[in-house]
Specification:
By secondary structure, this protein is of the alpha/beta class. The chain contains 12 helices and 10 strands. Helix 2 links the parallel strand 1 and strand 2. Helix 1 packs antiparallel against helix 8 and helix 2 crosses helix 12.
């Protein structure tokens, strides 16, 4: 995959990781997987292993710092399967989450009818030591997205749905994170809900540079791409509609370890949620992923603009 057309993507991935891992400066833990609890005066802000999560963690952390709260970062840890356990044992205090995606993880059979219903359902399934804070209007959900070549070949447009892939999926390789292969909001649900069976699955990353590069060079013809990914517009990818709402809701929402966060901290993170919408998130993602800006710098700049610093 390290051919000329993927080189820029690969470099961007390295830059994003370096920026993300350095985003918390001297407050960062040396080992993000370490499960030691911080002292009672420190809020540990974690992030999953993709650029947007690292950016959101920086936003949360800097918003907390603006209130005089001591913050330590554990960036780029891994998937939800890892970070949820770290939240339960208190080695992470706060994590950027996506309400409907979290619900699908906790209860794959749960219906998602509204943001409010999703929030209530999550709270009923969460470990008792955890709580979901206020959701933001910003929504970034999984999608099945095809590249321009595939869209042209099968006459797929922005109004096409996942159901339109039923006859052609056996000719296509689909890519995504390893977890996408076994999740309900992944290949399992695509088969159950839409009857889609693909030629094969290629394990890549969680909607990150490896997935984007594979979709660009047609290594995969379809992939799990997040709907705020700026590469969708840049590369003329086509996001397929999901009329059965398989991918549910995905409002950006802080997930917290109850005893590790003061009311002042809760209020600071809820204030972030109130200001963060999808258009803003897409712009911030573009600055990090396309312009290669340090996510910490992007986070600080937005918080200042939003009056949250």
């Amino acid at each position: 995959m390290r051919h000329p057309r993927a080189a820029a993507v690969a470099l961007a991935a390295v830059a994003a990781l370096v920026a993300g891992c350095g985003s918390s400066d001297s407050d960062e833990s040396d080992n993000p997987l370490a499960e030691d609890q911080a002292d009672g005066d420190t809020v540990v802000v974690g992030s999953n292993n993709f650029a947007e999560s690292i950016l959101l963690a920086d936003i949360y952390g800097e918003a907390l710092k603006a209130k005089g709260i001591k913050v330590e970062y554990k960036p780029n840890i891994g998937s939800r399967e890892t970070t949820y356990g770290m939240l339960k044992n208190g080695s992470i205090t706060v994590l950027p989450e996506y309400n409907g995606s979290l619900l699908a993880y906790l209860d794959p059979e749960a219906e998602q009818t509204s943001v409010e219903a999703v929030g209530s359902a999550v709270e009923s399934k969460l470990d008792s030591k955890l709580t979901l804070l206020e959701p933001s209007p910003a929504e970034d959900k999984d999608s099945v997205t095809v590249n321009a070549e595939t869209a042209e070949k099968y006459d797929l447009t922005a109004s096409s749905t996942l159901a339109d892939l039923k006859d052609v999926a056996p000719e296509m390789v689909i890519g995504g994170s390893p977890e996408f292969q076994t999740r309900q909001q992944g290949l399992v649900g695509l088969k159950d809900v839409y009857g889609l069976e693909f030629k094969s699955f290629k394990a890549l990353d969680a909607g990150g540079p490896l997935t984007t590069a594979a979709l660009k060079d047609n290594t995969v013809q379809a992939a799990d791409i997040f709907t705020t990914d700026p590469n969708i517009t840049k590369e003329k990818f086509v996001v397929l509609q999901d009329p059965e709402n398989l991918f549910g809701f995905a409002n950006v929402t802080p997930l917290a370890y109850k005893s590790g966060l003061s009311q002042e901290g809760i209020d600071a993170l809820n204030a972030v949620s109130a200001k963060l919408d999808t258009k803003t998130l897409l712009d911030l993602d573009s600055q990090v992923q396309l312009d290669n800006k340090d996510p910490l710098d992007v986070a600080k700049s937005w918080l200042k603009t939003a009056g949250l610093n």
